[in-house]
Every structure is written in C-alpha cells, then in structure tokens.
Amino acid sequence: MPLEITRNDPFWVHEGMVMNTPEQIEERIAFLEDQLASLDHYLPETYQLLMRELDFQQHNLMTIKIKTFYSNQDHEQ
Fold first, then answer.
1. What is the pLDDT averaged over residues 2-16?
2. Cα separation, 32 vs 29, whole angstroms
C-alpha cells in the first residue's frame, strides 16, 4: 500500500484492490478520476499508479457487467 501525496493531502492507494460490487467499483473509479484531475503538475509515478489502478478497476467493473448480462440471459431462457 503505497502512500501517495496529491495536493499535499495523503491518501492510501490500495493497488489492485478488489471491490465486491459494481457500486463500490464505480465509487473507486470516480475517486481515481478525481485524483487524476486534481494533479496540479505532471507527477509521473503518481500518474502511472493512478492510471494502473483505474484500468484495473474499470476491467473489474466490465467483467462484473458482462457476467451479470450473461447470467440474466441464461435465466431468461
């Protein structure tokens, strides 16, 4: 769990953190997007860490949505 500093406010980034619900993932994605938008100047390590985590969470969200879609399709038949 690396501690990152953005706008002089520390926050914990639990890299690769697995969320259980789409709502949790969407909240995490919104948080990460806010952090990216708030970078006052280009910080390569922080930017890369946030982008990596954002990609990870978006992938997890899409996986859940696809599984839910196909699960619903199976139940409709």
1. 51
2. 5
